[in-house]
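Purpose: get a first structural picture of the assembly so the mutagenesis plan has something to point at.
Setup: two entries, given in the order below. No constraints added.
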Amino acid sequence: MEFDTIAAISTPLGEGGIGIVRISGPDAVKIAKKIFKPKGRESIGEVKSHTLTLGYVVCPNTGEVIDEVLLSVMKSPRSYTREDVVEINCHGGMMPLKRTLEAVLDAGARLAEPGEFTKRAFLNGRIDLAQAEAVIDIIRAKTDESLKVAVGNLEGSLSKEIKKFMDGITDILARIEANIDFPEEDPEAFITKNELEEMILKMMKEIEGFLQEAGKGKILREGLKAVIAGKPNVGKSSLLNALLKEKRAIVTEIPGTTRDIIEEMLNIGGIPVRIIDTAGIRKSRDKVERIGVRRSEKSIEEADLVLLVLDATTGIEREDEIIIEKVKNKECIVLINKIDITGKVNIPYYEKITGKECIAISAKKGIGLREVEGKIRERVFEGKINTTRPLITRVRHEQALKKALKSLGEGLAACRDNLPLDVVAIDIREAWEALGEITGDKVDEEILNRIFEEFCIGK
Amino acid sequence: MPFSAGKYDVIVIGAGHAGIEAALAAARLGCKTLCLTVSMEAVALMPCNPAIGGPGKSHLVREVDALGGQMAISADRTCIQIRMLNTGKGPAVRALRCQSDKKLYQAEMLKILQHQKNLHLKQALVEEIIFKGCRVEGVMTQTGAIYWAPVVILASGTYLGGRVIIGDVNYSSGPSGFFPANKLPQQLKAHGIKMVRFKTGTPARVDKNTVDFSAMIEQKGDDEELYFSFMSENLKRPNVSCWLTYTNEKTHKIIRDNLHRSPLFSGVIKGVGPRYCPSIEDKVVRFADKESHQVFLEPEGLGTTEMYVQGMSTSLPEDVQLEMLRSIKGLERVEIVRPGYAIEYDCLVPTQLYPTLEHKEIEGFFSAGQVNGTSGYEEAAAQGIVAGINGARKVLGEEPVTFMRSEAYIGVLIDDLVTKGTNEPYRILTSRAEYRLLLRQDNADLRLTEKGRKIGLVSDERYEKFLKRKKMIEEELERLRNYRVKPSNKKVQELLIRKGSAPIKNSITFAELLKRPELDYRDIEELLPDERAVPKDVLEQVWIELKYEGYIKKQLVQVEKFKKMEDRKIPENISYKEIKGLRTEAVQKLEEIKPKTLGQASRISGVSPADISVIMIYLEQKRRSDKKGVPNGGKEA
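Result (structure tokens, whole complex):
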């Protein structure tokens, strides 16, 4: 068989929180078997192709039930990819979907690259030649999209941590490799066996701690990223508060600096939404305010959805036009605020100027908020906003960290078994590469750069 | 007046470490070969360290040997000290390093070249390579002699546009006072060949009789009989010591006080030097808090009192060189025989080459060695044999031979050069080999002798020796995997307790027993039911194979994955510009590197995994439409 077995969430989160985890490849059935407990008597290995089986997804480590699901098996070649395909229809919402995917990955599948199912479908002859270009477009678009998320995440705590871990592992590797490749220097100057063990152990503890924190959801929160934007005093904070009054916040406020971004978590129709209130955008001479404005612009860029607030009492001003221009290519709902003062507003006029769907609201009096929530839900279910994307990003990062942790553990065991440096290096390198897959970095140059930066080497 | 001086199959320019292997390989494969050297005195010159080997380098030497090359045999015959480095760091990185008698090495190589059938060695300065369109036709020398050949291998080392710099003095020169080649690089540039300027340096040589060794630490060679070549045995060789001393604060102050006279810091030197081989002034400036640096004194040969001062490579003025050397313990009254110098030279941008080392735009034009941007005798020899083999095969109308990263350091070296290029003189390092545990120096013969045999460079004698060794390894492995030992065996249980290893509860094989970290081969040898005289090198193979089995398997799995992409060939006529969905940067890089396989393409910086997917789809699309006989993108149904 040419390919390994891959898995991913293959649909945007549907109505009522239904989503599908798809597994494709030679081990698809074997992997599904490990995590699936049928309600009926037959094991899925005996299930006929192209039938549905009701059952539970069970965590392979703890035995805990994750979700009630419908599982379908499509045997090769009668499947989308022409490989054995298993699809798990989850319906418990976003978290069970994510945990189901994680269970599948823990059971031996690899997280699919963007567009990989389509790529396989084509390479296995399932999609006809005329569609080749469309396939390329899909791969390209999906990759660019996930790249955007990765870059967007770069300054987020997650990627910062990953970079930090990579840096630590590079340090270990550089010491090992310098010791090996420059034997005429004093080897103790690079690393002793005890130091090596300590460094690996420390690294493992850090990653372990991070993963635990991440599991508790303290550090990472995923969900749709909605940003409230608008000029100063247009009622952004009131809107946030009003939405919060309607729906209980899931997570408390993240403290920030002056004029920083306020972030809250809402649950709208079963969809976790990170709602972000930004500093008002306007041209300013005030240095502190300018920093705030720049941050706001950045969070607009990274947003899945922008809630642009306009002031019905002032109409569209120059400052508004600047923001309208910025959200031109974004998924956006325009909220005409303060109708409690003006009474009726001319919605078609606003829609014509902004080119977006507009809703009249009053944040103060709580008018139109239901409609806002309804619109957000609608867009998610229509698939206009991809809610699974940030989730996948997180799964990818966590999987990489788990892989790195496992390799480091093997390296440590090798150390303790008195295996030589060149063998230990294999594990440490593997740990690095697991993380390097996320950032797209190559290990060789990193090691060499580090060696020559840190150590005085040479004849 | 130019005149026609003869016709050859292969012409090699240069008789250094690359040129020698190239010329010998071509001649041994039956090609009428001409090797031109700038001076008969410069054949096999070692202008830097009087040493061969080291991590990664000794791997290359043994690989060249397994393929039927010359370096290892000559090094063994002219060695005056040999050591195994990294013995405690694992089988993959153990490395031989020898001190060579430079003059003897040169004499040995000269003899080999001059007695090689099909090979003419001549002294001439090549001033022009004759190109016709995008083919090479021959070379013209300074004296007007024109030699014709369909294959020309450029192995000119640091001679192209060579400039020696010592303090404020600088002059046009090749290494060690030989002539530089100044016209050739101009012509190559005019012909559209991309060149860069690199720099390297060498320390002073001092007179042994003016050194106080009693103040230094002696570094002896190993007593054990160690050889680079799989063919060498029973050679009587001396064991001459090297000597270790250290720089001190006074040395560093002298250097700091004279930095304004350093061409490195004044900007006279523009070429890029290697990071792994910094000059002493560089080390003192960059690592200011280091109180001392190691200095090794290495003999240049038995018939000379010259000693090489490793660790003190410099381009400072001669008076400063003397002053700083004399500040070092044991060198208080030292006399310099030759001052250290930096040398700048032109070399080819290696991404212009195919993995065969043939130039992509000029058929029949190969290059090898330092002129491709590498440094080191071993790196040069490795490229030399590859260029020689492929030059000859071109003439003979045979398929090219290349080496994969998973089979040899030669493959790592050349793939790095032609796929990634280099922005400093490139040196091989074991950390560059991702499948290091498989590419050991001890199994170079097992990896490459068959390949060398197929190419035609492995003699019957070598091949038989190899088959015998291979058979013995297999038999010994089988023996250990078959013989079992039971818990009732008292001797074994006693041994295990003595070694701090858990006693066995069930019957296990000797192979399994050997895997225990506490046990050594010698421990179990006498417990084996039959006695066999197994040679040491065979035992070593078996031991590594068993002891590291888990990790070897791990690497084999990695190689499998790697090979999948390496097996996906990219057709030569592919036009990346036509592929919709490739990013502009990727298109540019791919057009430049012209990768032969998807695997190679994936290693080009600036080509992302998504680009690789796009190429895969494109290739599949093309394959299907070609099969159907419809134009690109045509409907399948």
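Chain A touches chain B through 50 residues (CB under 8 Å).
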